[in-house]
Every structure is written in C-alpha cells, then in structure tokens.
C-alpha cells in the first residue's frame, strides 16, 4: 500500500478538476471531430501536467514518476485520447532528459514541457514490431551529419510532432536521431485510422534522404537500442495508467446509473446480480492500481529501468486487461444504454482495445515477465 504525499494528492486533485471541468463536457464532441487537441495540450502544459516528472531547470516540477502516472490516470478517466497523448510525450521527454546533451535539453525540453511543441518517438517498422533489433531504417554518416532513409508505422504524434526521435541503424548498431519538422524528405505517408483514441495522431512516416546533423544524435552513436528499451520500460506504467483510468471512468458511470435506474420501484443497485458485477469491477480496479503504481514508485525510489522490466511489463499488461474487462461489465449494467454514445462506454471500450498493442502486445509483456521469472 502506498502512502501518498501531500504534493501527490494535490497533483491528483488538480488534474481531476481539470478533467471534470475542461474535458468531460467536450469529450464526445472531441471524439467525433477526431482532431489533434492542440489547445488542450497547451493547457496541460501550462498547468504543469506534462512536465510533472521533468527537471525544474527546464520548466518541470520534478514531482516524480508516480505523480506522472496519476496524472495520466485522472485524464484517462474522462478522455483517454488526451491521456494517451500525455503518456506518449513522456517517452521523448525521458530520452532527452536522461540521454540528451545540455544543448539538446535546453533547446527542446522547455517548449515540449510547456505544450508549445509536440514530440514523438519513431521506432516501430512494418516488419519489426516489438523486435527493435530488426531495423530497415538507416542513417548513413555523411560529412557533418547523417542521411536518413526508411519507413515507420504506428507512430503516435507522428504528423504533428515538431521533434521526432527516430531509431535507425548507423552501421552495425542503432542510434536515436532527432528529426525536426520541416526537414526536406520527411514525409507523413498517411494518418492511420484506429478503432479508438480518435483525437490521437497515429501515422505512417517516411524518410527520403533526410539530412540530420550529428549534433542531433541522442546519447551515444550505436546506443539507440538500449535507450529505446529503457524508455519503453519506463513508459509502460503510464500506458497501464491509461487503462486504469478507463476502468475507473467506466465503473463510475455504471455505479451512478445503478443507483439512479429504477426497476420495480427500486434502484437496480439493490439487485444482487448488479451488486456482484460492481464488486468485481471495484476489485479489478483496486488490484490493477497497485500493480500499475508499483514500477513508477520504484523509479522514484532510485531503481533503474533495468530493475523494473517485469514490473513495468506487468503494469502495462494489466492496464489493458482491466480497461476492457471493467468497461464490458459496465455496459452490461447499463443494458441497452451501454452501447449508446451519450453514455460514453462505447467510446471507452474502443479506447481500451487500443491499449493492447501499445508499447508491445500482451503476449510480448508476458514474454518479458517470463524471461525474468525463469532466468
């Protein structure tokens, strides 16, 4: 059981208030439009939500990884699309904060933390998936820079990204290179239409002889795979928190409905069949919460990404499971209204399904855990 600090409770309350006042009234309309919410990103930047785990010298609050997970959870409770954008932004922030040069940090971190610039990580390829060692995107050294060629798929924040951190082969090993918006040869092939996260920007990207200066290498040349793996390990708890938030949102809708819906002159919350479903949902959420918080709390206690591989994989896995399971139970509580758009559950279920492939499928998450268990 975690003992939350006063600062952590204040962050939760602040983000919850923002979600209830700014997001809840607009959620359905935002989803229908399916446009990237630039203004909302700026708002969460101005509130300090983006940089909650980032260093103070670049505009963050250095509150920690657990408060960052809590912030994602509270936003996902109301509008998972924005929570996923926030979660995805944590990956490039982590890369720059932990592996960037002082010049790179000073140039890129403050505007990303303020929500004025959008950042993305481009690792996934059409034939690679979770196998980051199999890369077809190449960056060939040429004078004072690199020439980047290749293709990436399912890149969140891809077309709106002002800075895209690209994983590419530089010789025998991979490196991370920062590609800035407007670079000649940088092509957004198409925006990929997904089942959920309708306000998210998930794209296929192409690179045709893009010239990137050597000063834009993040970390050491040839160290890109290690950087990417550490970053995804850290970010998986936040992916799980998106699922946790979805589950909480669905449960709150079901509980409210059960107390208000009258049948034979009494609220259906008094029916044992409904009570059992509510108990199951509440139990699933509580069990998932501590598994998802755990790796973030470990990082705040000084543990390294390599120490939390199993914990973060488990957090991400359980986040998807609890989101789908609880939302489907909530739909049963509401009966016919469960599939009606104005009750939000259909939207939440579509978003829940999107969590399964994010940063690795459930099966990949199980492999990561199994390898650590049996080693």
Q: Features of this protein?
A:
single chain, 375 residues, alpha+beta, Butyryl-Coa Dehydrogenase, subunit A, domain 1, Butyryl-CoA Dehydrogenase, subunit A, domain 2, Butyryl-CoA Dehydrogenase, subunit A, domain 3, four-stranded antiparallel beta sheet, 11 helices, 10 strands, 16% strand
Compute the number of structural domains. Answer: 3
Ends apart, CA distance between termini? 28 Å
Mean pLDDT: 95
Low-confidence parts: none
Using the coordinates above, name the CATH class of the largest domain: Mainly Alpha
Question: In what order do the strands lie side by side in the largest sheet?
Answer: 1-4-5-8
**What is the CATH architecture assignment of the largest domain?**
Up-down Bundle
Largest sheet: 4 strands, mixed
- Counting DSSP E segments of at least 2 residues, the number of strands comes to 10
CATH fold annotation of the largest domain: Butyryl-CoA Dehydrogenase, subunit A, domain 3
Number of helices in the DSSP assignment:
11
User: What shape does the CA trace take?
Assistant: globular
